[in-house]
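Hi P.,

Sorry for the delay on this. The queue was packed all week, but I finally got your sequence through. Input first:
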Amino acid sequence: MTLSNNNTMPAEQFLLQLWQQNQGAISRTLMASEADPAARQDLKQDIYLALHQSAERIQAAELPRAYLFRIVHNVTVDHIARAKRQQWQELDEDTQHQLLQDCPSQEVGEQQQSQQLLQAVRQLSPANRQVILLAMEDLDTPEIADILQLTQGAVRVRLNRAKTELMEIMHHGR
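Then the structure:
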């Protein structure tokens, strides 16, 4: 069930349904952006707080899911900006296993390929990592454009660049 702008239910109930429907995608996005479980939990709380502060606007939005991911994007970008001098930490085995179990790309290849993909995605530049993560969550170009506040043409260009960078990392390593 996909939520669209629905003004007949209370904003809090609408927000809760939107959160529950997208919790897996949010968790995968955070796992790809932050290796530290405690920091991921803080990010999740920051996102949820930001969602509550925007509950009525999200409910009234034409694309509520895109609005949700814009908030996820903004909170994550702010976090990355604050931590830009720190190196990415390797994910512990439990986290890697959980991410791979939840990941829709598991159908495409073996677990080893998924681990390599995850490691490669984490090596992408921040702009490319964000656009590829959104695409991997089956968001379409208009939704990604809305989230990142770019034109659809700019999103297509970034997706092509991200795919090229990802292929380079996968084939040659970094």
